[in-house]
Design goal:
The structure holds three protein chains of three kinds. Chain A is an alpha/beta fold. Chain A has 15 helices and eleven strands. A six-stranded mixed β-sheet of chain A has the order 4-3-5-6-11-10, with helices on both faces. Chain C is elongated. By secondary structure, chain C is α+β, with helices and mostly antiparallel strands. Classes of the chains: A alpha/beta, B alpha+beta, C alpha+beta.
Amino acid sequence: MKFVDEFRDPALAQRLAESISASVTRPWRLMEICGGQTHALLRHGLDRLLPAGIELLHGPGCPVCVTPAEVLDQAFAIALTPGTVLCTFGDMLRVPGNGQLDLFAIRARGADVRPVYSPLDAVALARALPDRQVVFLAVGFETTAPATALAVREAREAGLANFSLLVAHVRVPPAIDALLSAPDNRVQGFLAAGHVCSVMGWREYEDLAARHRVPIVVTGFEPLDLLDGIRRCVAQLEAGAATVENQYARAVTRDGNAAAQALLAEVFEVVDCPWRGLGVIAGGGLGLRAAWRDFDAASRYAAAVAPAATAADEPCRSGEVLRGVLKPPQCAAFGTRCTPEHPLGPTMVSGEGACAAYFRYRSPVDHADAMPAAAR
Amino acid sequence: MQCPLPLADYPRVTLAHGGGGRLGRRLVSELFAPAFGNALIDSRHDGAVLDALAAPLAFTTDGHVVRPLFFPGGDIGKLAVLGTVNDLAMCGARPRHLSLSFVIEEGLAMETLWRIACSIGVAARENDLRIAAGDTKVVEQGRGDGLYIGTAGIGEVMAAATIGPRAVQAGDAILVSGDLGRHGIAVLTRREGFALDVEVDSDCAPLWGPVAALLEAGIEVHCLRDLTRGGLAAALVEIAEDGGVELEIDETAIPVSPPVRAACEVLGLDPLLVANEGRFVAFVPRHDAARACAVLRAHPLAAGATVVGQVSARAPRGRAWLRGLFGQARALAMPSGEQLPRIC
Amino acid sequence: MCLGVPGRIDALDDTAGAACARRGRVDFGGVQRTVSLALVPEAVPGDYVIVHAGIAIARLDEARALETLALLRELPSSGASGQPRA
């Protein structure tokens, strides 16, 4: 595949790894923001190509992991309402709410829950099923919010009265700010999420880099992108620099996608919102503007009540994982009481969260990550 | 051939067709029997009496719940027959007899049932399989996805030695019979919500032919497993655990066709976990690997056969490892549940 | 977040009306899908775009891609002093 295979070249990966090794003079801790980046790093074992001094912390860049449990509970209530179809990305189906229910369990109780690839497919479904109410669970970062915005605009133009959105979109820069401002922050350099920046550009990150004195490298998702992003971040750290750099130049410009930003501004406004495991982040979310609130499922279904569910026996420590202060194998429940089959929290949900990625791609015996880097 | 049951009278299956009464008998004699043709052992009793077989028997059972009922390359009927043929083939057994249990959702179009029954008849005849017994139940609308089919199959074991995970030995070569992921992608991309235009048909196929070829060539086959749900990863993890062996496969050696690969990229799926219906993995002694490949490639249903890895050692808690593109090994894990496209 | 995949625009959809409904057929190397092109108004058939959740979010700049790869090829290929971990 073009623009894919070239960025998976093993020979160039080896050169990158050697270049990083050659440049390191002291330990550094980097964080990659995006769940897709975490997934790629662990799947290809890229972290193991790095010299021992580089520690990768996995960030809260996974909307599946940070969507508040209350939103899941609302989704359950909506899905169980007769005559309703709940459409969602496949990633959300196994995420537990406040108890141990997830959308799969809700479907087993008779709810019509349908995974879709795009919110536009949910709109198409609403057209095809005029007698049903179709609700789309709109999660994701600034990368995905434009798709939601296009969908709701299309619904308005088609005059659909049976389509609505349960909105839980989140914004990355406020989360980075909160993370870097926390007293126990360990992150020294960031790999920013390439596709978020395709939409938003990197202007918002310049102030973050300057205020917190932290290099931020906008990074893609293929193996060479990730290694290149790490190389550039380490080079800045070694040089004492703290600027925003663009590794993903083929898909990102400083100003981003103007059409997408205009659409976001038309449909959404910035709001404070809770991130699961991290607490409320000021300006951390997107909500529907007043002119679009007739499509708000939370209002349309205000009377719906979530099913009672027993809480898990022990609290999940996903918040600490998301902030990079806890590695999944360091959690006592990891792999024993908490597995992808019965996750205690969102970071263990299959494939997306850091805990699930560790579980799938690292077996119990190679949890050298459980030891601090210096002790290895 | 037109459905012999007068569709004008009964365009849809009703609860009465499963009640064991007159309508049920008509369904058997006027729909199933003509559809199955001479594959059907003509026995109208509660059970069929079969001639004794010369060799040890292999026996298997399976349930088929695929959605949608029709997909490029097959349908639930064909899948039910071939799934059973393949389970028996994986024991080194030539498939001989099949039983079918239909659970039909009230309201299923009779024309649909006829098409599926014909498909079963064709698949049974093509694989020299006799349909020895059957049963039909009808459930209320809303219970049943249209149709579920349960099967049981009997085959005669043609392999000289027991084929199974415990026969796997250190040094064995691991082969797959062809490229991966076709069935899962063919089915998923036809489900509403994930529509992709992809020139991929299900690889739904009977595997006794290629297996028989291996046995006839005198290849010492240690283990066979057909790749179904959970893909190659699930099969390897199971064999590693059940057989007590450490095995390793090379990511660069795994065959995946370009359209399947592209579909997996778009939907965020791992080809190692995607379902197949006409592929198997074989464990043979290392010295026989080249010959086994040649024998398989000469068979039209295994033309893409290739070596993908080897067994490194026997070990009490065996695991399956994947050596990746960049030289790093990671342990394969059993996939949890259905593979669904992701956005993250 | 952000599974975004590069694909080549094969053709624009004739049935599209207003700009916000602009769609096209995108080929991902053997697999095609109709994708919203509303947010990449400058993209035309033959261009590559990044597609996420059914919409094109950016046009891929081939020149920049080649530059990035060229920079990587300039990295020294051996003689590194650091030890990669096993």
